[in-house]
Amino acid sequence: MSVPSTSGQLSKRVGIPVETFVWKRIDSLELCADIFYPPTVAKSGSKALPKRPIALLLHGGAHFLLTRKEVPMKHIKTLLKRGYLPVSVDYSLCPEQPLIDGAIPDVIDALRWVRSSLPGLQRARLDVQMDCNKVMAVGWSSGGHLAMILGYTAAENGVQPPEVVVGFYSMCDFEADFWKRPINFMGIKEPPYSEDDLLKGVGDKPTAGYSPTRVAGVARNPVDPAKSPRALFPIHCFCKAQMVPVLIHGLPTRAKARALRAAGVTTNWMDMPQPPAEAIQRISPYAQILAGRYRTPTFLAHGDNDQELPIEQSRDTIAALRACGVEAGFAAAHGAGHSFDFRPDEDPLGTAWGTVQEAYDWAGPFVGL
Q: CA-CA distance, 55 to 129, in Å (whole number)?
C-alpha cells in the first residue's frame, strides 16, 4: 500500500462543495474520499466556529455495485445542517476480493485515516473546523453492514471504534434463514445465464466501484445485466441463495476458473455450499453482538415493507443489542421498502424521511450535537 494524497481537488455536486482525496492506494487501485463542505464560506475574522464531528459514509450496492458518489445528497445536506462534516469513502468490492480481504480492512483503514490523517490534510476550506475524535459511521444496506463491522473490528486493529453507528436497511445477520433461500431481487426476472456469463463480470484486479448510468446526477439501472456483466452478481446471489458464499469466498475470473478446473478443482461457482458457521459469524454483526464483542451505540432504520432485505435483520439486531446492555435505537418506516430515503417509489406514503431525522436525532448526542 503506497502513500495517499495530502492535497485534494475541489468541485461541486448538486451545489455542495466537495473536495476529493485519494485516501488509500493498493497497487494501481485508488480509493477516494469525498469531503463535503457547507455552501457558504465563513468570513475571515468571524467568531470561531464549532468543530464538526465526522460523518463517515459508506455507500450501499449489495457489496458488488456503486461507489462513494452514490451516497444520497439529501443526507449530505441534512448532515451539514446538523453540524457534521460528511466524508464519503470508496472501498473494495466483492467478488474480486472476499469481504475479509477487501472491504473490511478498507473500512477499518478509512476510519484510521479519518482519525489520524484527515486533520493534517491541505484542505481547500480551512474555514471549516473538524473534530476527528468524534465519528459517526453511517451506512446504507451493505454499507450499513460495514458500518457495524467497525463496531467490533476497529479496536482489534488498533483503531478507536466510531462513537456511534447509524444504519439504514442494513445487512446484519448472515446466519438467518433468509440468506439460505432463493429471493426475487428488486422484482427483476432472473435471466438465463451460465457460469461463464457469471464470471465474465469478475475483474482481474480489485475494484473500488461500478459506476452506473446517470441521469441528472442520479444513478440509474445499476442492476441491469444487459448493460454490465457486473450487474448479474446481486441477481445471482439473491436468486440462487449465494450471497454468503460469495461474500466469504469471492469468485474467480473466467481465466482463473478454467485454470483451476484444469488443475482438478471441481468447485461449482454457480452453486457453492454455505461456509462454516465460524466464517459466517466473523462477518455477521448479529453474531458478534450475541458473543459480547459489539459495544458501539447503534441506531437502525428499516422500512416495514422491505422486499429486498426483511425488517427482521434490523429489528432482531436492535433487540440483541439491548439485551446485551448496548445503547440502541430503532425506527420502522411505515409502508416503506428498501432505499426508502432516496427512491420515491419505495416511500409510497411520503413519510419515511422522518425515520432518517429520528436516527440522526438519536445519534447526535454521542458526538456532541
A: 14
